Amino acid sequence: MTLAAHTEHVVAEARALCAELCLTSRERDAILRAARWHDVGKAHPVFQDTMRRGVGEPARYGEAFLAKSENQHLRHHRAYFRHELASALAFLAHENWRRGPTSSRT
């Protein structure tokens, strides 16, 4: 499954859930935004290498990012890699997140 198709499915499910709940527009927007960002870390080269090793015909997907593969028991070549962390870091970078002011040591 491609990452784009997976993301669209997740957003559609989130939208349907939001329609059933009494949410403010701000809450709904936050949920839909989270749905769009939740797996962006799967675009990372380490994750993509793993996904392409797990499909029978990787060429049929061309350059598309993959979200899932046929083989669910593969390990990443990079120890401890987590696409969830890559997703969070990508989101923070997109938001220009910075640590608070640092104290100067003299």
Tally the helices.
4
**Uncertain residue ranges:** none
Q: Give the percentage of residues in beta strands.
A: under 5%
What is the tally of beta strands? 0
Shape: flat
Instruction: Report the major sheet.
Output: none
Q: What does the oligomeric state look like here?
A: single chain
Concise description?
With 106 residues, this protein is mainly alpha-helical.
Structure notes:
With 106 residues, the protein is an all-alpha fold. The protein has one domain. 49% of the residues lie in helices and 0% in strands. The protein contains 4 helices and no strands. The radius of gyration is 17 Å and the shape is flat. The termini are far apart.
Secondary structure topology:
Blueprint: H1 3-20, H2 25-37, H3 45-53, H4 83-94
Helix pairs in contact: 1-2
Structure characteristics:
106 residues; mainly alpha; 4 helices; flat
